[in-house]
Amino acid sequence: MRLPPRPGLLLLALAVLAAGCTAENWARFSQFLGLNRQPGAAPAGPPVLPAEPWPPGRVVFTKGTGLWVWEKGKVWRLTDGYLDFQPAWSPDGRKIAFSRRYEEGFSDIVVLNLDTGRFQELTRNGRPLTWAFRPAWSPDGRRVLFLSERGSAFLQPWVINADGTGLRRLAVLGDAWGGVDRPSWSPDGTAVALAVYQQSRVPQIYILDPATGQAKPVTSEAEGAYDPAWSPDGNWIAFVKRAQRRHEIWVMRPDGSEMQPIITDGVSRSPAWSPDGRYLAFISARGGTFDLWVVRLEFDAEGHPRAGSIRPLTQNFEVDPVGDLSWTH
Amino acid sequence: MANLSVELAPRNPRGLRLKNPVMAASGTFGYGTEYADLVPIGRLGAVVCKGTTLKPRPGNPTPRIAETPAGMLNSIGLQNIGVEALIREKAPIWAAWDVPVIVNIAGETVGEFAELAARLDGVPGVAGLEVNISCPNVETGLEFGTDPAAAAAVTAAVRKATSLPVIVKLTPNVGDIVAVARAVEAAGADAVSLINTLLGMAIDIRTRRPVLGAGFGGLSGPAIKPVALRMVYEVAGAVEIPVIGIGGITTAADALEFLLAGATAVQVGTACFANPRAPIEILDGIAAYLMAAGIADIREVIGAARREAAAP
Known about the structure:
The complex is a heterodimer of chains A (329) and B (312).
Chain A: H1 7-19, H2 23-32, E1 58-63, E2 66-71, E3 74-77, E4 83-89, E5 95-102, E6 106-113, E7 118-121, E8 133-137, E9 143-148, E10 156-161, E11 168-169, E12 179-185, E13 192-198, E14 201-208, E15 215-217, E16 225-230, E17 237-243, E18 246-252, E19 260-263, E20 268-273, E21 279-284, E22 291-299, E23 305-312, E24 325-328
Chain B: E1 6-7, E2 17-18, E3 22-24, E4 46-52, E5 65-68, E6 71-74, H1 83-95, E7 101-105, H2 110-120, E8 128-132, H3 148-161, E9 166-169, H4 177-186, E10 191-194, E11 198-201, E12 203-204, E13 209-210, E14 216-220, H5 225-236, E15 243-246, H6 252-261, E16 265-268, H7 271-274, H8 278-293, H9 304-310
Helix pairs in contact in B: 2-3, 3-4, 5-6, 6-8
């Protein structure tokens, strides 16, 4: 059977060839042709050329029970066979720390060395039931902060050296029924933003001094604030603010001032900055399934970020809404 | 209009505030999504989804349901899609709803309960957990819920794994339900719900075989209401945490009996099979009762039968 001529396609192919077939061009071209329809990579429906290039770098995230990586519109599986989630790139992008859960009811912080492909357990919890969640590398890459309920009712911040020594609890925050969630280091390593839960109160974002264990609240949101993420230049903290049924993404100064909305429709969680500070990736259910989305930030003359274009990084990919994500160069 | 809102997890950091005390019970309302076109789900106090396990389960051999006088026997065997599919497919839908969804979790070991709780912690669309301790512990062969120590061990493991509100669902197939309630309260439960089904059976006299494929099943429906009411009354007098009444609630009058006995909220179960709108009709009936009696706040009703019993 003869295919009808498709001059549009031919022209585009020539244009791509004329432009020089770089990897990025090829990715865009092949997506246009629907050649890389692996799940989550190509949009469903009529193919459209991306209006702008993909954001730079790699995003690690969780889907189902394993870690996945997104880069330039493509996704691939990184770990399989365990219950892995909450990944965090090391500052040099050569390692990923994550939480590995076991069905016996405990979890450990594990580091994957991308140079060697080897896994190293930083914690060794085992029985009795002890949890380790949400690892976060210190900016110098020498320590990993994580959350554990060891010796407390709910999760509290702990720190361990990247070689597995020096395990200690940083602080006990909140009351007897309190706990913390999603720590994020300041880029100079002198402070950690995290969400603090307390009995009968909505969560708020606190700034913890890891040297002293002292912490103070920087938000007092009526319906709660959580999921903080410190910007690479240290000037902003992105976070999630509850508003009735919506989970909105906002930014604020590290002292809690100058709050500005970024994404205010639907359910958005886990904002993560691009290393250049020009984008925020996040998890959203706006498409009917949990997927990775990205918003390009536009900065006004005073350096205040506002939402630019918003686009999905995955579609109908059913990413883990509490698996968190991390972005490296 | 009277204030109908109740708090089910007053000491929990996340809390579990319901706009009214009428919930759809686990196993009788699917994942809620099946009823979204039939019932104004946004009017319910909360929905408790069907029992969820780590891995998908096909359920027990058929037949799984038998009618009995004023009741129903079932042995569904925890047929469910598993926690991963629940997070992928159901949670994004729930996250857009105006009603809190509580996930009922069931495990075969203490570790499985803990893993389920850790997995669901913070998932948008999941407002709390109801822990089904009426399942057998494969490590001992006994039901967790029949032994205060085993029930407390499950509760403590779930408590350590999540800051979500934790409701422990108690079984009536036990000598002293008050002892179990006290044990799970001490282990960190935010609330207790009771009762789960009473173990029963039916035999077909023609085939001389048990009617249910699994032999035994759980009895529910109006037949068990007096037993449930007595147990709710006893437990509400013994623990500080909120009690959720379940068992044969079919009308607003049934629900009010449980509230008067000390329940902070009620779950409507078997009645949903005959009439998926039953929880809404019960809610409307409660509101009408409060209005007719000139009661401004549902909390005036909760436990009133206890207070009046205590008065000289």
